[in-house]
């Protein structure tokens, strides 16, 4: 399954166009390598997604062509979530 479609169907990112834009800017790594929106995703892959000041690492558990909202969470597991530190200058 394409990376951008997986992110949309799993509801990690709401719109496929946004997922495509983020991937094409090099802000998503699949198994440690920079991925484009057309990169194939398989069960067991680890995705590192950079959202602004937050980096989330997820593992793909299941691939479904379409899901209901309650089933989307079964497609992945969050391994870690880190927030970038901001310097507080006064």
UniProtKB/TrEMBL annotation:
Lineage: superkingdom: Bacteria
Annotated CDD domains: S4
Keyword RNA-binding applies: yes
InterPro entries: RqcP (IPR025490), S4_RNA-bd (IPR002942), S4_RNA-bd_sf (IPR036986)
SMART domains the UniProt entry points to: S4
Pfam families: S4
UniProt key word Protein biosynthesis: yes
Domain RNA-binding S4: 1-62
Keywords: Protein biosynthesis, RNA-binding, rRNA-binding, tRNA-binding
Family: Belongs to the RqcP family.
Role of this protein: Key component of the ribosome quality control system (RQC), a ribosome-associated complex that mediates the extraction of incompletely synthesized nascent chains from stalled ribosomes and their subsequent degradation. RqcH recruits Ala-charged tRNA, and with RqcP directs the elongation of stalled nascent chains on 50S ribosomal subunits, leading to non-templated C-terminal alanine extensions (Ala tail). The Ala tail promotes nascent chain degradation. RqcP is associated with the translocation-like movement of the peptidyl-tRNA from the A-site into the P-site.
Subunit structure: Associates with stalled 50S ribosomal subunits. Binds to RqcH, 23S rRNA and the P-site tRNA. Does not require RqcH for association with 50S subunits.
Name of the molecule in the record: RQC P-site tRNA stabilizing factor
Gene for this chain: rqcP
């Amino acid at each position: 399954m394409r990376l951008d479609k997986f992110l949309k169907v799993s509801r990690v990112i709401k719109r496929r166009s946004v997922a495509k834009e983020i991937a094409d800017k090099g802000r998503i790594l699949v198994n440690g390598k920079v991925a484009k929106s057309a990169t194939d995703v398989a069960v067991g892959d680890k995705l590192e997604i950079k959202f602004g000041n937050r980096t989330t690492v997820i593992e793909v558990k299941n691939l479904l062509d379409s899901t209901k909202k309650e089933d989307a969470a079964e497609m992945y597991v969050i391994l870690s979530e880190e927030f970038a530190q901001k310097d507080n200058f006064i």
